[in-house]
Amino acid sequence: MRITVDAERCVGSGMCVLTVGEVFDQREDDGRAVVLRPEPPAETWELVREAVDLCPAAAIVLSTDRRP
Amino acid sequence: MGESPHAVTTMPTARQLGCPFDPPAELIEARQHSPISRYTFPGGKPGWLVTGYDLVRSVLADPRFSSRKEFMLHPTIDYGDIEIPPAPPGEFLLMDEPQHSRYRKPLMGKFTVRRMRLLTERVEQITADHLDAMEKTGPPTDLVTAFARPIPAIMICELLGVPYRDRGSFQEQVDSFMNGETSDEDLIAAYTATQNYLAELVAAKRANPTDDVLSELTDSDLTDEELQGIALILLAAGLDTTANMLALGTFALLRNPEQLAALRADPALADRAVEELLRYLSVAKTFMRTALEDVEVGGETVKAGSRVILSYNTANRDPERFADPHVLDLRRQDGGHLAFGHGIHQCLGQQLARVEMRVAFPALVNRFPTLRLAVPPEGVALRPETADIYGVKSLPVTWDA
Ligand code: SF4
Question: In which pathway does it act (chain B) (predicted)?
Fold first, then answer.
């Protein structure tokens, strides 16, 4: 699982940080989300999916690695 | 096929007797019929009422629905064809992109999860001070004035940099915008007084910047008028919403003693308890959007220009989303309530509100193990449904001193 945040869409709600703080943080200056662990450990996947769903701005993009 | 959608003819003006925490029965019934109902505004303009969780969420996330003030229509009063001016500069709740972002962006860094958590200790201190004062004065007391209103008020005033001595009159004015019972004349007077006060405050911060959000914002390209607008909505939101959550939330806990006991017994329950109280009470209960083009919502076509009333509190009681939705269950696992909204306007101050409630509820119930209502539950005065934010007017409580 890979995640990125579309900084232009992010509205700084903090929902992702609240949901899974070891994977997301907010930048100090502008409050936008940053991804701490772009390839989050498997035990956080469920919460990461929840964060994707909760994000009010649909700013978190989730892609599953497609390995040959 | 060709089935005509469910219609709601009038917006309810009261809750069912004995059910102060539940949305009006008419709205619950509407949702049972269908998540979207037709609603004709007084004066005959056609519109919609959305009560289902999924649909409320999808409308809030959809940029084809506008929040602009000039499109708003009063849900229950016919003001004829008077033109509503656009939102004043800075009042970004009632704007769409790109104007909305101009104001929200410089604020986003000031309300982050981390910054708000850093305020925990300060909230604890203020909470303890007010509990001490309650103890000293002794029972009975009105929990609204002794506890629920001052805690969030002090926090938002300190955050923004409103001097303590100005807080009282300011709070009274904001209350008169929000209580749903103020005459038009008094509303105008309160609004003017508030604007004058904020103009002075912004000028003072420009002249002598202090360590607060408003002073920090003077260091941007925002004009005085814009700063005033921003200050107004932050203060209004910060003063009234959490205060109502704290008072109504305490009322709800007192009416659900086994839940109250659970919160007392298990401090780790606090975070979940706050989310559940937010869902169950949804004090910011209704918002409106206007379709900018024809949009299909739940199989109905919402025509360009039509208004859609979104019932957050009914959506937060949607059984398709929450099991046993009318039960207050502090251990509930499913999150995702709409109490702070959804989409780009989702509450900016939500992390502050969480910290305040996270501290205040447990502190209150632990300090007073025998806390109870001092009047019969039917005797608790409630705000009318016309108020933007629901709550109790006062909450007489007592305890064994
Ligand atoms: S939940 Fe979405 S909008 Fe909120 S901070 Fe995270 S990425 Fe940004």
Answer: Antibiotic biosynthesis; mycinamicin biosynthesis
> Who's near B68: CB < 8 A, 6+ residues apart?
B86, B87, B94, B95, B96, B290
CATH architecture of A2-62: 2-Layer Sandwich (3.30)
Residues B337-378 have pLDDT tens digits of 999 999 999 999 999 999 999 999 999 999 999 999 999 999
* Contact between residue B107 and residue B238 where contact means Cβ atoms under 8 Å apart: no
Give chain A positions within 8 Å (CB) of B114: 17, 25-26, 28
Q: Hey, is the C-beta of B210 within 8 angstroms of any chain A C-beta? A: no
Beta-sheet strand order (sheet of B46-50): B7-8, B36-40, B46-50, B307-311, B286-291, B65-66
Question: How far away, in angstroms, is B238 Cα from ligand 1 center?
Answer: 21
Digit-coded pLDDT (tens) for B110-135: 999 999 999 999 999 999 999 999 99
Both tokens of residue B345? Answer: 């306007």
**Does the domain made of B7-398 have the CATH classification 1.10.630.10?**
yes
Tokens of A1: 């699982």
Q: List the domain boundaries for chain A.
A: 2-62
Q: Are B248 and B19 in contact (CB under 8 A)?
A: no
Beta bridge partners, B301, equal: B296
Interchain contact, A31 vs B112, CB within 8 Å: yes
Interface mutation vs chain B, best among A5, A8, A9, A13, most B CBs within 10 Å: A13
* Inter-chain touch B108–A12, beta carbons under 8 Å: yes
Q: What is the CB-side half-sphere exposure of residue B24 using CA atoms within 13 A?
A: 17
Residue A11: closest C-alpha in chain B: B344
Please say whether the beta carbons of A18 and B272 come within 8 A: no
pTM here? Answer: 0.95
**What SS3 class is residue B289?**
strand
Mean pLDDT lowest for which of B47-61, B114-128, B155-169, B334-348? Answer: B155-169
- Distance between B134 CA and the closest CA of chain A, angstroms: 33
Judged on CB neighbours under 10 Å (0-12, 13-18, 19+), B301 is exposed
